[in-house]
Fold this protein.
Amino acid sequence: MENDKKDMNDNILVVNNLKKYYPVSRLSFGTKAFVKAVDDVSLSIKRGTTMGLVGESGCGKTTIGRTILRLHEVTGGQVLFDGIDLAKIPTRKLRKMRPQMQMIFQDPYSSLSPRLPIGEIIGEAVRDHKIVPKSEYRQYIVKVMKDCGLQPQYFYRYPHEFSGGQRQRISIARAVALKPRFIICDEPVSALDVSIQSQIINLMMDLQEQFGYTYLFISHDLSVVEHISDTIGVMYLGSMVETGDKKLVFSNPMHPYTKALLSAVPVSDPDIKMNRIILKGDIPSPVNPPSGCKFRTRCQSCMKICSEKVPVLKEYEKGHSVACHLYSEN
Ligand code: SF4
């Protein structure tokens, strides 16, 4: 009990058995079928740290981000933000809490209104939520812009006048202007050139150091999350297959899927030979996933038990858990 309380205090976010299912019609049988976009996922994030959530496109990582913030309604499970279950609270209370939990979207081109100058884009919600007194509004927005590497004279300029990297700075400024404590970053650099990607990641890390933000950083690219994350979660077809401290996951990847993802990360030394593991086939349909382990149709280590029994996420070493029968005791 003591330990549970301590965890709750350390962790700003605790997600327990989260499910997000979308109904689809199955015409031939008349029965209901569901896309299990997020299927029984649990995770926790300590205050002031970053969890990197990785997986191929379609694995449910974006859905989990949106469901945590209740941009999509929760099908089942708990989302405890500072001990408050976001899945259960009334919409009015959720709206009041919104400034504390922000999201930075992938596409800096479509996530900014083309009709508003950037001062207004950044400041609109600041005014709505009365983040600062009216008299300090302009000064505050200029300070946020400066913190995010945007010059004050850009205040009246429009998004189309900026490059992709600057637009992402505007998106970040819009999020941090609300003085959040938790920010979900959904592929925030994948639409940018590699040189710009590192600038944006460095900006996010600087802001975290200065203001103590907690990030859930969603990406399909392990090399990007390696730089910014303290802990890593690897998702496959709506399930968490491996999670743990970044150093443990990178130095000792255990799940065959994590090994395949890591083998594709480019190395800067041309003398190092890459032993890339090529995954066969596509991700199976989330409406009708394989029995047992969902990864078994693409796994080179598949055994008989893998089609019969669903592997459960278990702690293998302190701070490192994996869901795979290769590490089961029986
Ligand atoms: Fe491969 Fe079996 Fe482990 Fe799934 S449970 S990843 S199929 S070895």
